Amino acid sequence: MPQESAVYTHGHHESVLRSHTWRTAANSAGYLLGALRPHMRILDIGCGPGTITADLAALVPDGQVTGLEYAPEILEQARATAAGRGLTNVHFAVGDVHALDYPDDTFCVVHAHQVLQHVGDPVQALREMRRVTKPGGIVAVRDSDYAAMTWYPESDGMTDWQRLYQRVARANGGEPDAGRRLHAWARQAGFTPDAITATAATWLFRTPEERSWWSELWADRTVSSSYAQLAVDGGHATEAELQRIARAWRSWGADEDGWFGVLHGEILCRV
């Protein structure tokens, strides 16, 4: 069975976790929530610090949620997130989505948020997600699409950021424009077209508080995270160029006319 071959572009720098811990089931998995039932057994792949995982566990009080993460170092934070909310129906494990260590037909729902854009073989990942889902169950996937991200006012530095991020992510074996590809990948993984429900949703950052938060985390990520090191080591940018892009992010964040939209593709696949 194939193993992970891509490098996780973001890493787990504080600026990355600032974004990940903001995510909830409401703002990042709304397309799935109407299908949940209290008894369900759920696998949450790429759970990170566990905020979405904990929300899912709270929504299935008679069920069980497993948070799976390829990078074990983040799981202590995930466990603390669940414990802090008094949840007893959730646990966490280390694993690879390309080769899930679970029998066929184990879960009612297999969920992955912002995962397939970072893996080496998203079609194989979906095959595995399908394999471990019970008949009648759901594979639910949501990914952003970097080429579809848009902002105002225009900024050469922000455009440079978008193009640089795409180069770095693809050099690491990922696909940053995953959102538009999810339905096609699902079909290649064996789901029939009538089993796939494809939707799209957005995050929007517009208020002074939202702009400040979003711009600062990306400015910090651009110069201080694993992404920054990968950009320099891979010959995609110099440190001076990264500093210029970080300044562009902060300039956008300080502009009272600033507006930033993040498009996500979503799929619900019935097994």
What does this structure look like?
The chain has 271 residues and is α/β, with parallel strands linked by helices. 40% of the residues lie in helices and 22% in strands. It has 11 helices and 8 strands.
The low-confidence runs, each spanning 5 or more residues with pLDDT under 50, are: none
Approximately how much helix is present in the residues?
25-40%
| Quaternary organization | single chain
Mean pLDDT: 94
Q: Over the alpha carbons, how many angstroms does the gyration radius reach?
A: 18 Å
Q: How many strands in all?
A: 8
Helix- and strand-based class? alpha/beta
Main sheet characteristics: 8 strands, mixed
Sum up the structure in keywords.
271 residues; alpha/beta; 8-stranded mixed beta sheet; 22% strand; globular
List the helices and strands and how they pair.
Layout: H1 14-20, H2 25-28, H3 30-33, E1 41-45, H4 51-59, E2 64-69, H5 75-84, E3 90-94, E4 107-113, H6 122-131, E5 133-144, E6 150-152, H7 156-171, H8 182-188, E7 196-205, H9 208-224, H10 226-233, H11 239-254, E8 259-270
Parallel strand pairs: 1-2, 1-4, 2-3, 4-5
Antiparallel strand pairs: 5-8, 6-8, 7-8
Helix pairs in contact: 1-9, 7-11, 9-10, 9-11
Brief overview:
This protein has 271 residues and is of the alpha/beta class.
